[in-house]
Amino acid sequence: MASFNKILAVIDPAEENQKSLARAMEIAQKSGASVTAFLSIYDFSYDMTTMLSVEERETMRQAMVDDRIDWLSEVLNSDSSEIPLEIKVVWHNRPYESIILETIEGGYDLIVKGTAKHDTLKSVIFTPTDWHLLRKAPVSVLLVKEHDWPENGQILGCVNAGTEDADHQSLNNRIIDQCHEMASLLKSNVHIVNSFPGTPVNIAIEIPEFDPQSYNESVKTYHEQCVEKLATEKQIAPENCHVKEGLPEDVIPVVAKDLDAELVIIGTVGRQGISAALIGNTAEHIIDMLDCDVLALKPENFVSPIQR
């Protein structure tokens, strides 16, 4: 698989079962990609050792790093896979920054990270590492859950076929192309889903002569025609095209569940500031509602705000 040649698997020291590593190895076995097991560590007690000499602090820090390298080596040795693995342990107090910096410096083209459902309140106040990666990582991010990747499974690409924006159209093409590549790799079937907004309630109330039913039908027809055109260009069977009314964060999880999809592929656009903390974007909204893996693609020419 040409698009992913060098994979960074993010290790979670709090988990016994390393989902990210298992998924990265699965991709590598099928594609020939290389895998690096990456662990970012930091002990905040280190900040309380300023009374020690520079040498003593460095010895303490290195001892913690060496301990994690030994632990990670044992984890990898317990894996019977014949795929060679590299180990990288870094000392950094912001895991997402260390992951992004390693991705840039190491020339990786895919980040694989295990994820779990976040507490809603914590997700707003303390943005989880995977949300930071969705917004700021310079490459595709695969967030792994518990769903298996069976042969003849279903891969769901999320598109906005009705857009006239060139960047969104380009992202649509990249999403579907990635669906086909993953489907070829996993021997799966490609589906696409497109949602469209329903009738604005305020218009229906304020304009008596407005016909919401006719409006809905015309909008639906427009999106169906756009999806049909896109599907024809990208060789997707009509029965595998799903056009639904509603918000993407409501429609996508429902379609994915109905299909029992093993992978959902979506485009994401980085967002900074208050809107990022309180609103997030479509990819972030649907992560917690999906029981399968999510592969988030960046727009072309995306530049990460994280630089050394």
Describe this structure in words.
With 308 residues, this protein is of the alpha/beta class. The chain has two domains: 114 residues, 3-Layer(aba) Sandwich (Rossmann fold); 163 residues, Rossmann fold, CATH 3.40.50.12370. It is built from eleven helices and ten strands. It has a ten-stranded mixed beta sheet, with helices on both faces. α2 links the parallel β2 and β3. α3 packs parallel to α5. It is elongated, with a radius of gyration of 22 Å. The relative contact order is 0.14. About 2% of the residues have low confidence.
Estimate the strand proportion. Answer: 15-25%
Going by CATH, the architecture of the largest domain would be: 3-Layer(aba) Sandwich
Number of strands: 10
Helical content stands at 40-55%
Domains counted in the coordinates: how many?
Answer: 2
Enter the CATH topology name of the largest domain. Rossmann fold
Q: Walk across the major sheet and give the strand order.
A: 3-2-1-4-5-10-9-6-7-8
**Name of the CATH class of the largest domain:** Alpha Beta
Rounded average pLDDT: 85
Count the helices. How many?
A: 11
Rg, Cα atoms, Å: 22 Å
Q: Biggest sheet: strands, sense, closure? A: 10 strands, mixed
Q: What structural class do you assign from the helix and strand content?
A: alpha/beta
Q: Unreliable stretches, pLDDT < 50, 5 or more residues?
A: 274-279
Give me the strand/helix succession: EHEHEHEHHEEHEHHEHEHHE
